Amino acid sequence: MTASLTTLTTALDAGALGEFHSTALADFLHIPGALCWIRRGEGLVAFGEVARFHGTGPDRFSDAEDWWKALLAGASSTGPTGIPGTGPLAFGSFAFSKTSTHPSELVVPRLVLGRRDGGLWLTQLSMDSTRPTAASAHRELAELLAAASATPAAEPPAPVAPVAPSTTSSRHWDGNGNGTRLDTGSLSEAEWMDSVAAGVRAIASSGLDKVVLARDVVARFEAPVSRSAILRTLAERYSECWTYGVGPLVGATPEMLIKVEGTRAQARVLAGTLDRNDAPDGATNFAHDVLAGSAKQRQEHDFAVRSLTRQLAPFATDLSVPAEPFILELPNVWHLASDVSAELARTGSHLPTSLALVEALHPTAAVCGTPREAAGELILELERMDRGPYAGPVGWLDGAGNGEWGIALRGAVVEDPHTVRLYAGAGIVEASDPAAELAETWAKFRPMLQALGLHA
Predict the structure, then answer these.
(1) CATH of 170-451, one of 3.60.120.10, 3.60.10.10, 3.20.20.70, 3.40.630.30
(2) Do 420 and 192 meet the contact criterion of CB atoms below 8 Å apart?
(3) Total-model pTM
(4) How far apart are CA 123 and CA 111, in angstroms?
(5) pLDDT tens sequence across 242-262
(6) Residue numbers annotated as active site
(7) What is the radius of gyration, based on Cα positions, of the chain?
């Protein structure tokens, strides 16, 4: 590398934002191309790019880690960098499969706006001879805000029609004068249910415990789609999830693969799903009774928890796993969820970085199955598509090894201004019913369908 990474982090107050009085991170998503990681109004939003890693194949994680360490080797940082997410920072998105041709990437932005516990900070990053200063960081943010304000913020698409499960291969709408089309992707619904049935048979006849099968649908619009409007809608509607945007990949995931802050690591494991539309009126304990009381749902969840803890254990001196899952309530579904925490073990004087843990943990049983290798092979056979970044790790890491990496669920890829490809999957065990699993995928499509104005 011919240039060194230089960063400066400075505190930011509302007065520095000039006429733009908002300090809510989601309000900054109208700036084109924003990278983001937001939950409950806090997190990171970033702009521009000073360096990028691209990789594919089985070594994509270790290659990215080596690239990041090399970048940090000559880096210099100024300002308070003790808070996770300050100083040197990169956003990342990794393909689900080692066989995928979709590029995995780390993106080092030019400017990062962070919010944590009500406090705001601004980090400017440079890879040229220019050394960032507090004045240059504030000036660049002001210029971005002024340019974005000169262009009216795009509104989310107007709803054109309700979406309901069916067995047709495509759906058509012409609402509000705008033609909109939603097509099934690599497999029709009938074909995908056949794949689920094949998965059930494979489980019954082999040592496979669980396989997760995904499907895609493609939304096509006459008018250009606003990526920023999608992200703002997700951040507002699904504030309990982590809204992510890295390049064309957008979504709001409820599942944390791994979060590292210093010596502590945390993960949120989800498996077991119930569509909220299935709840009868007045049934206050419906989710608990149906999810926690279901042997099939509990088995699926147990596979996912054991998968994660088995992979995390070698990196931990202390591992805390709850005895019982809790019910996570989201606007579209309920999930069985377990929060796992660990004290990380040192190797000499070094702690594992968040990216090193991502490599060890991915893919979990929640998005692949168990045993992992056998499930992965069956996925390639039955899905008949490249998942790309869907169900892969997405998030960020800093120069101290901290980071937050979710699983890219409830998301989509904006393939071009008029085309968005959505993904959803379901965990298949021996007791799975293909029609019920298909309905579950439609419940999981709902956040992105809503963000696109296709209300489910």
Answers:
(1) 3.60.120.10
(2) no
(3) 0.92
(4) 6
(5) 999 999 999 999 999 999 999
(6) 210, 255
(7) 22
